[in-house]
Amino acid sequence: EKAVNLKKDLAEMQEWMTQAEEEYLEKDFEYKSPEELENAVEEMKRAKEDVLQKEVRVKILKDNIKMLATKVPSSGQDLATELNVVLENYQLLCNRIRGKCHTLEEVWSCWIELLQYLDLETAWLNNLEERVQMTGNLPDKLDAVNDALESLESVLRHPADNRTQIRELGQTLIDGGILDDIISEKLEAFNARYEELSHLAVSRQIALEQQLQTMRETDHMLQVLQESLGDLDRQLTSYLTDRIDAFQVPQEAQ
To answer: CB of 180 within 8 A of CB of 173?
Structure first.
């Protein structure tokens, strides 16, 4: 009777493993929204816990069959053969569910990381847009133009590492068919805004550099003229002081 019950327990265990495999491993999942992906992750975590909890039952079965084998070798030997099959299938099921759970957790982590990088780069784009707008109505002063140019250049020196991460993370998920529509839309919007603002900022940078160069050249010319006029003023003053007649001085002084 005990052998019959153990045989029944082995059959039930095998049936449960078959159902678990069908439910958790053979479904075709499509993750088209973050909610679907998150639900799948939570489901696989529960599946992993459920499968691992059966380990106690498997151990009890194993111990009972060993005990039976010592008392009734013939019955125990047959059950031991079935037990080995169940143990092998159970271990395989555990490994596959652990693997799928780990994969889904990695995918979810990849999605969260992508959102974080997008938030960082969006904040940088907002800052860049603000700096570009600030260069629109500058006072016609060299210091103001120079400060605006340095401020804009400091933002433009932003490293490209985050954008590389965004591209790689997004492509990884899209290649796996994970949230591909949502990610494609996000990346398209981000890249379009990045290209637009980058070109605008670089154009504004070039314009400010040219404006600054013109203002410096003008300042230099004014300085040279001012120095020349100062020299002339001092020379004329000396002529007047010495009461020299205008027709006695050089033509340029006249």
So the answer is: yes
Using CA atoms, how far apart are residues 190 and 209, in angstroms rounded to an integer? 28
Per residue in 32-91, pLDDT tens? 899 999 999 999 999 999 998 888 888 888 888 788 777 766 666 778 888 888 889 999
Is residue 215 situated within a structural domain? no
Cα–Cα distance, 99 to 23 (Å, whole number): 15
Most distant CA atoms of the chain, gap in Å: 144
Residue 217 placed within a domain:
no
Range of the structural domain that residue 115 is part of: 1-210
Q: Does any domain span residue 228? A: no
CB atoms within 10 A of CB 94: 17
Provide the whole-model pTM: 0.78
| Residue 247 forms part of a structural domain | no
Q: Structurally, how many domains does the chain consist of?
A: 1
Q: Is the dihedral of CA 121, 126, 131, 135 positive or negative?
A: positive
**For residues 148 and 236, what is the distance between their CA atoms, to the nearest angstrom?**
43
Closest CA to 34 of 99, 104, 103, 101: 104
- Output the six-digit token pair for 53: 């909890």
CATH number at residue 48: 1.20.58.60
- Distance, CA of 235 to chain centre: 70
